[in-house]
Amino acid sequence: MSEGTGPAPVLRFAPSPNGHLHLGHAYSALLNARIAERWGGRLLLRIEDIDLGRTRPEFVAGILADLDWLGLRFPSPVRRQSEHFSDYAAARDAMAAGGLIYPCFCSRGQIAAEVAARAARGEAVPRDPDGAPLYPGTCRHVSAADATARREQGAPHTWRLDMAAALQRLAEPLVIRRFSPDDGVLETVSADPARWGDAVVARRDVPTSYHLSVVCDDAVQGITHVVRGQDLEAATDLHALLQRLLRLPAPAYHHHPLIRTEDGEKLAKSKGSESLADLRARGITAEHVRARLGF
């Protein structure tokens, strides 16, 4: 799609309420808003709160306050992932029925021990794009009868994508559409989801994962263009695969540079990066923040 042609785009800003927004979030939200305005499109807000253990009402309230302070307005109602677990469970069950995923009963400790044992034997330990060791496939060949019995007994488990089986289902090469935020010009690049191995698509505590819920939500909300940070660029390969397997429409993507500290480290909630609320408390204005970020 080129700027000014085709149907009006639909974008989304989708923060997780497990901390306070910082300048990196502000940049992403403002860039989404600029593109939507430039192309006469819509920008939706989505609260990605599947992590029930870390989600806090005050963080949700803080997100809304920060975005309002920045001058951003969104249509109502705002989609909250925690209200749509049944949608994700249906997608999970469809993949299970198709033999595309399998239950994994391994704990993190068991996986770490297996990976360490393989490394000690001198075997290669492949890693995913985030640097984590790929799942060694311990439960991939557990029989269906055994897996069902263990689940019926209440054994904790995740659901993992059978990557080999998934790739065999592809009738044509998997690609990703990328677009320029300046003129909307599209390019197509090859996707390589295999580098994620048998990724988790549903967690122990909820019937989904970030990857599964995101592709389901983008389809339900009619998202045509996804604008997010470069730290999620590699995950798009996995998202493209899930979209193909679930027969969902695939948006076009742009992954913008991250806002970093003077030392070159990316801003992160987990690192205690200064929040927008902190800036506001110091008397920094929204206009100053927008100008600092190039808006």
UniProtKB/TrEMBL annotation:
Highest rank taxon of the organism: Bacteria
Residue ranges of coiled coil: none
Keyword annotations from UniProtKB, A to Z: Aminoacyl-tRNA synthetase, ATP-binding, Ligase, Metal-binding, Nucleotide-binding, Protein biosynthesis, Zinc
Enzyme Commission code(s) on record: 6.1.1.-
Keyword Cytoplasm: no
Enzyme's top EC category: ligase
One Pfam family cited in the UniProt record for this chain: tRNA-synt_1c
GO molecular function terms listed in the Swiss-Prot or TrEMBL record: ligase activity
SUPFAM superfamilies: Nucleotidylyl transferase (SSF52374)
Protein name in UniProt: tRNA glutamyl-Q(34) synthetase GluQRS
Source organism (scientific name): Methylorubrum rhodesianum
Gene name for this UniProt entry: gluQRS
